[in-house]
Amino acid sequence: MHLTAYFIISLFASMAGAICGIGGGVIIKPTLDMFRIDSIATINFLSGCTVLAMSGYTVTQTLRSGKNNLDLKTGTPLAAGAAIGGVLGKQLFGVVSMRIGTAAGAVQSLCLLVLALITVFYTLNRERVHTYRIVKAWLCLIIGLLLGMLSSFLGIGGGPINLVVLHFFFSMDMKAAAQNSLYIILFSQTASLLSTFAAHSVPGFSWLSLTFMITGGVAGGIIGHAVHRRIDDKVLGKLFTMINAVIMLICVYNMMQYMDV
Fold first, then answer.
1. Is 153 exposed, middle or buried (0-12, 13-18, 19+ CB in 10 A)?
2. Alpha-carbon separation of residue 131 from 56, 144, 168 (angstroms)
């Protein structure tokens, strides 16, 4: 039964992730936390692998199509910073988890709730916000590092905050931000998972569960990539806001559950 749940959650989360550029982990992680099927560390690992598979497929297809909004001059230093941040965020979560145990899940839920609230507020007011167009590589590197560290610590791969940052600091519209966000997520997740293997800290997990999740993730990436090309910026913005509202509800529920532990 839980294998079916893994597949369905990964499928729909990755569809939404590929469409909006949020990776899918921001939905997978809190949803699996809600069902308490595995430990926090195992859920983080499975979610990370799924997001890596989905973002890898989507970015590859985007590059192959030749019709993309990827800004490699900006995106590459952002992605490089995110890769470093991904490793640091993984280590930070390890320290927090050792100190407070299962309460680390409540901390993750609270941080994600705050990020989702900020994202919704920003998205609803984005037309009135003065944005910037940063081009200096070292600034891109620092911003990418912070994004990678935050997403890795929360176990979400990327998330809504990527789109806010890409719009505010780089003046990208929703569709361009979505594609560049997945490019950044691909690098940060790769670095985060490689650091997990290098440190021999891979948690116990079922290969069958991982297979079902990655299959759902890639299938969701295929569908989401096709949908992303066919919808406009306005529809994308509405879908993005709806997803954040669902994430906030799940985070509140998870926080209540963790505080009861």
1. buried
2. 29, 17, 5
pLDDT number for residue 158: 64
> How many Å apart are CA 55 and CA 194, to the nearest integer?
16
One-character DSSP codes across 187-243: HHHHHHHHHHHHTT-PPP--HHHHHHHHHHHHHHHHHHHHHHTTS-HHHHHHHHHHH
C-alpha neighbours within 13 Å on the C-beta side of residue 137: 5
Residues in the chain: 261
Residues 93 and 47: their CA atoms lie apart, in Å, by 15
Buried b (16+ CB within 10 A) or exposed e, 110-138: eebbebbeebbebbeebeeeeeeeeeeee
Best mean pLDDT range from 71-75, 142-146, 188-192, 250-254:
142-146
- Angle (CA) 172 47 122, round 5°: 30
Provide the 8-state DSSP code for 102: T
| CB atoms near residue 105 (< 10 Å) | 26
Structure tokens of 25?
């982990």
Least confident stretch, 63-67, 90-94, 115-119, 190-194: 63-67
Query: 48 in the Ramachandran plot: left (φ > 0), alpha (ψ -120 to 50) or beta?
Result: alpha
pTM for the predicted model, two decimal places:
0.82
CA distances from 30 to 9, 74, 192 (A): 11, 30, 19
**Number of structural domains, the chain?**
1
Element (H, E) at 38: none
Domain that holds residue 253: 2-260
